[in-house]
User: Fold these one by one.
Assistant:
Number 1:
Amino acid sequence: MSVAVRTRLRREATHFGFQIVDWRKRQGPDVEPGRIMLRLLGLLLVGVLGANASEPVTTSDAVAAAAQHAAVFAFPLDPSPADTEPYCADFENCNVRAGRHRKYHAARDYARPAGTPVYAIADGRVSFSGRMGGYGWLVIVDHPQANLYSLYGHLSPSRWHKRPGPVRKGELIAYLGDSTENGGTPKHPLVTHLHFGVRAGQRADYPSQGEWRWQAGWIRSMPSDLGWLHPAAILAAESLPAGGFRKPRMNFMSVWYPELLRVGFLLLAGLGSAAYAYRKKKPALLLVYGIVLSVIARVFWIKGMTTYLLPLAAGILLLVFGGGWLLRDRLRKGRQDAAGP
Ligand SMILES: [Zn+2]
């Protein structure tokens, strides 16, 4: 048996196993054994027919293996009949449900059962592997040789996942998460799927928050304007452009304005409250706004916004100034009391 056939059999068996486990989980505790047998038979038939349909007899395993080896990028999932099933959202699909707040999908989704293995598309370095908001677990792999990074969302925090460090093409990086841990919750479960994005440039090229942030999934601008590439086109690429994929030209303001706008508003509000506190001679107001700014800075920091330092500095300044003012008032009052009437 050739290596390609063995690999394919192993991958099919893994996928088959996960499908059964996933289906069994969804059925609840009292499913009849007869139904399980029927389901097993059905899946087996689909697997056999699907494999036959997707693999022309004229393509030898050697040719298929050579093609997979020659491709610049590996597919992030095992080949399976599910690839032809409708996926959750294609690249640049528009989220019309959100009405005027509509956003575009910066990736392609592949619907698969929880526990499906996910692989790195090329050699590189896992630069991020951690919990990230609506993604559940998120893995990002930098590929400096191609000047792009790949993003894999809705992974499983509870299963094994690769830690930051070097990674090889086709290497296992994580598993798809259950619908309650992949960004979904028991109350609002999320369809188990891989959110797969590819972006020109490196993660460090996109430091700011807002639509331009490096882990964006749904964004207001057209994703291709911000360097997101069509995942299907990248996976089908037969060669790398000289010097890798070029990131879009973005000037300073276009990268930073959403973040600067928010920080600017906060600082203006801080300045306004300071002026108000000074006029009304109420140092406690400064303390209150200092605390508010510090809390906001903490939120910015959690959200990965690089400009968290500005509200933090302003918050500390207000706290020190307000505290000093309050202390001076106390001392003065104390001295007056000591001097007596
Ligand atoms: Zn998605």
Number 2:
Amino acid sequence: MKTFENWALHFKTNRPYIHWKENYVLTEKERRAITKAIQVFQKGESSEARSLLAKADNFSKQRNDKSYAEALHHFVKEENRHSEELGKWMDMHQIPRLKSHWEDSIFRILRKPGGLEVSVSVLLTAEIMASSFYHALLYGTRSGVLKQICTNILIDEEQHILFQSQGLAQFYSERSAWKRECIHVLRALLLLGATQLVWFSHRSVFKSGGYSYSRFMQESFQIFAKSMHQIEWMCERKKTRLSVLLTENNRTA
Ligand SMILES: [Fe+2]
Ligand SMILES: [Fe+2]
């Protein structure tokens, strides 16, 4: 398991290579299937996440440990790099960049109220669906450059899910078992709502990438379950380390 200092370093130094040269011309069918979705995701990845980062800075001050906030700052820059890469590809293929979109606004509005834990939960929900989206886009296009971008982003997104799960584990480890169960149910409901929105808005790109509705739902909830297992494992690990430290302290006292 990485420390948050390691995560910051990972995000700071992660610069996957892309060979930008391409003569491929999108077919009309392909353009119709992917344009709207890629515009919305490109916009979503461009967020500066000001309210999330302000909450993270506050959290770090309270705990006198800036490592998590620093890692989140670098994580946001990595998401912005994804946006830049998608934007550059869209420019090459004359797909206009969006200034705003209601779907992106919904996720931003959901992230604002509540504390850092709520914001990270909403973010993790978006990351889970992003994984399926970039898989669909990877198989739904014949553009070599877009395939490279999607492959790189998919590798990054897998790490993002692990990073966000580790971030949430900090909060979960301070909750009682029943509170954790309640949060689990609320997060599952949030994912259920978000998957409906994403599927019905972008089903053309999912279908062109070989996804059916049931495959999309199954995959989203599998990633969710894996993330929950990671969170629980990290909480247990933290508790075990704490009890070992306490036992050692008692012995030396
Ligand atoms: Fe991303
Ligand atoms: Fe991400």
